[in-house]
Amino acid sequence: MSASTGPTVPVFAVENRGGQSDFLLVCEHASNRLPKAYGTLGLSAAARNAHIAWDPGALGLARGLAKRLDACLVHARVTRLVYDLNRPPHAPGAMPAKSEIYDIPGNATLTPAQRTARTEAVYLPFHAALHGEIARRIAIGRPPVIVTIHSFTPVYFGKPRDLEFGVIHDADPALALKVVEQAQRQTELATRLNEPYSAADQVTHTLRLQATPYGLDNVMLEIRNDLIGHPQAEDDMAHRLAPVLRSALSELQRGRHRSA
Predict the structure, then answer these.
(1) pLDDT (tens digit, 9 = 90+) per residue, 135-182?
(2) 152 lies in which domain range?
(3) How many CA atoms lie within 13 A of 242 on its CB side?
(4) Cα–Cα distance, 167 to 195 (Å, whole number)
(5) Pick from 14, 93, 120, 224: CA 20 to 30 A from residue 127's CA?
(6) Structural domain tally of the chain?
(7) How far apart are CA 181 and CA 75, in angstroms?
(8) Helices 231-259 & 58-69, crossing angle to 10 degrees?
(9) CATH number at residue 169
């Protein structure tokens, strides 16, 4: 399933809708596709392929996890430079005029009408589709566990990052804490909580919008993108992280059962 800004410009896709897992996976920055209607945004081809335009490797990782977990996956099919789906419409970063060291000329002087048009074309269809998948599962008594999947650059503003796997939470840290615990137990990845970002950096919009109001277990995963730089690496990382997610959820559920 997909929706589009026009007849040939899809803005989201839903894969494995019938998946039987408790997990529902989300990849908001899956694509660097720039629809023709937006031109080049004044950017070079290199900038449009850089991490400012998407999360390299995140979609391949998400698909690998969806396969191993038998989970539904909802992902974007438009670059976050047109609209960053992990930001609310009023946030400057939703349609950024600058990202890290890159100016985005095509976003510098957007009118209210243009911002509204992008919100209607990209943000609203994506989040309506995701909400629909969540609501359908809640309706049949199977509230989903929301996992958003991202990647981050190894060097940010010239500073190298030694972190390999970041685990971020919104209001409820329960699942994130279990994911960190299991990642440290089962993998050699340098794993830390609420790095390289946290909810204080306004990066948990999707969780805050879609999971927190329903009291759904949720977590945001950030993988350093040099670790998922090609299809085999994406698949290998999915192989490493699928058991981590399974174990984290199982531990969380067992703990709740014991305390009930």
Answers:
(1) 999 999 999 999 999 999 998 877 899 999 999 999 999 999 999 999
(2) 2-259
(3) 18
(4) 7
(5) 224
(6) 1
(7) 27
(8) 50
(9) 3.40.630.40
